[in-house]
Amino acid sequence: LDFDTGSSDLWFATTLCTNCGSSQTKYDPNQSSTYAKDGRTWSISYGDGSSASGILGKDTVNLGGLKIKNQIIELAKREASSFSSGPSDGLLGLGFDTITTVSGVQTPMDNLISQGLISNPVFGVYLGKESNGGGGEYIFGGYDSSKFSGDLTTIAVDNSNGWYGITIDGTSISGSQVSDSFSAILDTGTTLLILPSNVASSVAQAYNANDNGDGTYTISCDTSELQPLVFTIGGSTFEVPTDSLIFEQDGNTCVAGFGYGEDDFAIFGDVFLKNNYVVF
């Protein structure tokens, strides 16, 4: 499953699905002695245009050895092609329960807390960089202090929209400030670092990156020409190093790890999160 702090639904491919991928592992409710029908339906759409829909059920969910009883699950009967051909079998939403698609549903994180399965209502996220062998870990109920050095910085979270909203105090490159403050959400389900258009434009100008007109930029493939992108948050600085400023290379051209969207807030996706340990 894709662990996603930008949404709050737990759903996955099932044997009831008419168009799920042949390579996906499918949940079969008939093979579970603890499955219970619910009767309600669900449908979700994501920011990238993908979607999924199906029926609700209830079952015991084993999350890293923690057994969550009577968890509402969403059984997919249809899913977008990006899911059926993708590497995951569904999503586990880690956002707040105010944005579950079916009102009143308790998220796995809600139930981990209410069922006393974790003593602290937090989870630590480590996303491994490909250059370090990839991988990663989510620790529910705590965090892994071996994955970072120094002290954690506590940052105020605005969850009024169901997300982990934070304030970015400023952005700098080579010691020069390139933006004032702006709002952002921390989203493990987004790949790139999506900035408000005015901030992205300033960052791109500093890196001599060219706007591709589709929310992405072309940037130099030579990281020796670049300097880290530095954000000030909660009085501390957090870096996106030069190797993460390049998302992918196609021949002699490279796509930047930052881009822009239509929202007036930023989405700090994996480009940021794989370089900074976060406890939610």
Automatic annotation (TrEMBL):
Q: Which InterPro entries match?
A: Aspartic_peptidase_A1 (IPR001461), Aspartic_peptidase_AS (IPR001969), PEPTIDASE_A1 (IPR033121), Peptidase_aspartic_dom_sf (IPR021109)
Which residue range or ranges hold the Peptidase A1 domain?
1-280
Pfam families in the cross-refs: Asp
Report keywords, A-Z.
Aspartyl protease, Disulfide bond, Hydrolase, Protease, Signal, Zymogen
GO BP terms, alphabetized: proteolysis
List, in alphabetical order, the Gene Ontology terms for molecular function in this entry. Answer: aspartic-type endopeptidase activity
Active-site residues, Swiss-Prot/TrEMBL: D4, D187
Bridged cysteine pairs (disulfide):
C221-C254
Enzyme Commission code(s) on record: 3.4.23.21
The protein's annotated catalytic reaction(s) are: Hydrolysis of proteins with broad specificity similar to that of pepsin A, preferring hydrophobic residues at P1 and P1'. Clots milk and activates trypsinogen. Does not cleave 4-Gln-|-His-5, but does cleave 10-His-|-Leu-11 and 12-Val-|-Glu-13 in B chain of insulin
Q: Which PANTHER family match?
A: BETA-SITE APP-CLEAVING ENZYME, ISOFORM A-RELATED
Q: Which family does the record claim for this protein? A: Belongs to the peptidase A1 family.
Protein name, per record: rhizopuspepsin
User: Which organism's genome codes for this protein?
Assistant: Rhizopus oryzae (Mucormycosis agent)
Taxon lineage: Eukaryota, Fungi, Fungi incertae sedis, Mucoromycota, Mucoromycotina
Q: What gene is this protein a product of?
A: sap1
